[in-house]
Amino acid sequence: MTKLHETIETSLDRGAAFAYIADWSRQAEWDPNTVSAARIGEGGPEVGARYALEVKGFRSPMPMEYRITELVAPERLVLVGEGSGIWTEDILTFAETETGTKVDYQAEIKLNGVLKLVQPFLGRYFDGVGQGVVVGMTRELNARA
């Protein structure tokens, strides 16, 4: 298993930051490792909401499905994502600061099957994934401030 832990600071207020990130269909706007994202079905972010994503794979984009498993606005968002050979849990918490919001982003990533054998060698790759999230999320949240 690989664990990512990143912190993002933005001048955007907590409610607006949470609302933007909780709409997981917008993930491709702030995560450079996501090729596309769309809500499956109708409605906004809520527990049980599902999202179809294509993420950059090692050779070609991989389909994944994410679902919101916990949503406590504007404080906490938890999603589980699954695709061929991959499982992930993303946990985001939002805290008010004097100048805006601090987003704590954690992800646990488990590769399955033959991919499980190479996961211990992918530390740098996953570090790059985390840094891409920091840059993209900071950019998009600040653009909305």
User: How many separate helices?
Assistant: 4
What is the overall pLDDT average? 92
Please provide the ordered H/E string of secondary-structure elements.
Answer: EHHEEEEEEHH
Major beta sheet summary? 7 strands, antiparallel
**Cα shape:** globular
- The side-by-side strand order for the widest beta sheet comes to 1-7-6-5-4-3-2
Q: Helical residue percent?
A: 25-40%
List the topology elements:
Layout: E1 2-10, H1 14-22, H2 27-30, E2 34-40, E3 50-55, E4 62-72, E5 76-83, E6 86-96, E7 101-111, H3 115-118, H4 123-143
Antiparallel strand pairs: 1-7, 2-3, 3-4, 4-5, 5-6, 6-7
Structure description:
With 145 residues, the chain is of the alpha+beta class. The chain contains four helices and seven strands, in the order βααββββββαα. It has helices at residues 14-22, 27-30, 115-118, 123-143; strands at residues 2-10, 34-40, 50-55, 62-72, 76-83, 86-96, 101-111. The chain has a seven-stranded antiparallel beta sheet. It is globular, with a radius of gyration of 15 Å. The termini are far apart.
Provide a short characterization of the protein structure.
The chain has 145 residues and is α+β, with helices and mostly antiparallel strands.
Brief descriptors of the model:
145 residues; alpha+beta; 26% helix
